[in-house]
């Protein structure tokens, strides 16, 4: 059994993942525009896939045809998530993006309840209501207005991300599939779709965009690829074996907090009373909902 100091040391990489994920919305906002979202995604995945393939290459060869097909279908959904998130981050503040996407942690157990025809508990509904009130305050932070397009895109990303998790969890053919190999197939499918669609959108070709990048843009692209994607993936694979799922969920659940802090500190976001109250309600409601939705402890499964 690990000592408390060892447990805290093991938590640091997970906390780092939450920080880089929270900062990814700000990085996207400074790197991509509405016209360059697709080529930026192609470049990001083009940097990640070869390195990720080195880590999971042997396991990829062990996938069956059904697993490849299932992973590709999930990759189409994942591509939709990346599109909504990236376009949303371009059209709203980094603070709003990070907090709105965190609703996924409430929507997932709610979706499971609906599919299982089980009525959600009252504490969970109260937590969900607090988060929705927080989103309303957050989007009205600069005065009474309709939610902007970016806010709605991020909300759509949270919904689609929930669907992705529910489909992946309920697809029997993929339940025993290696998570690393399945992730590579999904990312590769999404990247292929982005590459095929880009020429028909009027966006610049990815390589032309890359040639025009300066040091700052290349730094942001490498940050998104190496830290927000590859590093985060590797840490999650390690964390599954090194610590408990509830601890992983708790630490990664701090992502919206870091998005809010970095968005205000570095992104020029305004810290008004409404924004502060809305952020607090989203964070508190999401964490409370996640806790009451956690499954009851069961016997540990073999690795």
TrEMBL record:
Keywords associated with the record: Cell membrane, Membrane, Transmembrane, Transmembrane helix
Ranges that cross the membrane: 12-31, 37-56, 68-87, 93-111, 123-140, 181-200, 220-240, 261-284
Top-rank taxon: Bacteria
Principal place of residence: membrane
Domain EamA: from-to ranges: 11-139, 150-286
GO cellular component: plasma membrane
SUPFAM superfamilies: Multidrug resistance efflux transporter EmrE
Pfam families: EamA
Subcellular location: Cell membrane
Keyword Cell membrane listed: yes
Membrane topology (UniProt): Multi-pass membrane protein
Entry's family note: Belongs to the EamA transporter family.
PANTHER family documented for this protein: EAMA DOMAIN-CONTAINING PROTEIN, OS03G0707200 PROTEIN-RELATED
Protein name: EamA-like transporter family protein
Protein species of origin: Kitasatospora viridis
Lineage: Bacteria, Bacillati, Actinomycetota, Actinomycetes, Kitasatosporales
């Amino acid at each position: 059994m690990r000592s408390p100091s060892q447990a805290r040391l093991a938590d640091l990489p997970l906390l780092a993942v939450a920080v880089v994920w929270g900062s990814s919305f700000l990085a996207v906002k400074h790197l991509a525009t509405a016209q360059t979202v697709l080529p930026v995604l192609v470049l990001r995945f083009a940097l990640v896939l070869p390195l990720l393939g080195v880590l999971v290459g042997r396991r990829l060869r062990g996938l069956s045809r059904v697993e490849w097909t299932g992973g590709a279908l999930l990759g189409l959904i994942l591509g939709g998530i990346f599109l909504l998130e990236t376009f949303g981050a371009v059209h709203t503040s980094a603070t709003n993006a990070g907090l709105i996407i965190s609703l996924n942690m409430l929507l997932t157990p709610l979706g499971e309840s609906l599919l299982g025809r089980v009525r959600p508990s009252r504490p969970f509904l109260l937590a969900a209501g607090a988060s929705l009130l927080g989103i309303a305050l957050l989007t009205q932070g600069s005065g009474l207005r309709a939610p902007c397009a970016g806010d709605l895109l991020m909300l759509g990303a949270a919904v689609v991300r929930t669907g992705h998790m529910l489909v992946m969890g309920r697809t029997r053919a993929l339940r025993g599939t290696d998570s690393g190999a399945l992730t590579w197939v999904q990312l590769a499918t999404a990247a292929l779709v982005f590459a095929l669609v880009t020429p028909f959108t009027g966006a610049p070709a990815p390589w032309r965009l890359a040639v025009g990048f300066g040091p700052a843009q290349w730094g942001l692209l490498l940050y998104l690829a190496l830290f927000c994607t590859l590093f985060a993936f590797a840490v999650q694979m390690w964390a599954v074996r090194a610590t408990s799922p509830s601890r992983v969920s708790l630490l990664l659940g701090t992502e919206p907090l870091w998005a809010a802090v970095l968005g205000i500190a570095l992104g020029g976001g305004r810290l008004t009373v409404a924004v502060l109250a809305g952020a607090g309600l989203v964070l508190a409601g999401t964490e409370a909902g996640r806790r009451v939705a956690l499954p009851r402890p069961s016997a540990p499964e073999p690795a």
